[in-house]
Give the backbone structure.
Amino acid sequence: MNYTLHQLKVFLKVAEHESITRASEDLFLTQPAVSIQLKKLQEQFSIPLTEVVGRQLYVTDFGKEIVVAAERILNEVDAINYKTIQYKNQLGGRLKISVASTGKYVMPYFLSDFMGLHKGVDLVMDVTNKTFVVKSLEQNEVDFALVSVIPDQLKTESLPLLKNKLFLVGSPKLKERGKVSKKKLFENFPLLFREPGSATRNAMERFITANDLPILKKVELTSNEAIKQAVIAGLGYTVMPLIGIKNELKNGDIEIIPYKGLPITTQWNLIWLKSKNLSPVASAFRSYLEKEKGRIIETTFGWYEDY
């Protein structure tokens, strides 16, 4: 057997996505490069690791066994590397965080200095919607999760970070189609929604129900960036977090429409399972945030308090 660690890493990505295209994107490799590494690994075995049915790639039962073994091998390699770092009296290990999609505008600023201080720490940050964030925490796949709504079904500890403010927003372009009163906005223009499972969508739906607002047309998009671009293009109005539209407000691409009951204000919280034994890296990060979060908020999010 002459397979390499690189081949195992490539195979794990292919197995994760069941797609050479998506694996190549994650690995920042070309599709031919991924295919070559997969072929070289397959040559080490007489039993197929993958199979293609129609145009879809699947991992065989034997391939799934190799996935388990490959994960174990690569984890052991990481452990050796981290032990080496620790013997140099440096913090070493992996920090895993799952972030609700709008939290991508928040979490990096609380991570930047910490990662700069500790060169031996590797970061894995998964950005997804609230439902999958909670699931990854529940299944103990991550150290921390960043959410704006703390899940009731889990016993968690939490560290509040930054307020989450949601406003009604639209494009100035919509005014060019004729002056419409605030009460008539919802009768004359589509409303843009995030996908089911999104905390932003849940907050928006509660606001609509509480105010008994009519909906002319519902448009659903599956990312905050997609919603933002749709607003800029004048597709309709939406309720969305302030944190993600700083530049668009400054440039005049998006405007806030004052409305009774808005902004909706929640709290971004870093949470972790109460029963979880935090690793040295995770414990160090929690301690760092407890000490530094005030400074980070003051220096990075000062603009936020103007709204």
Summary: The first strand starts at residue 50 and ends at 53. The radius of gyration is 23 Å. The first helix runs from residue 5 to 17. The chain is about 45% helix and 20% strand.
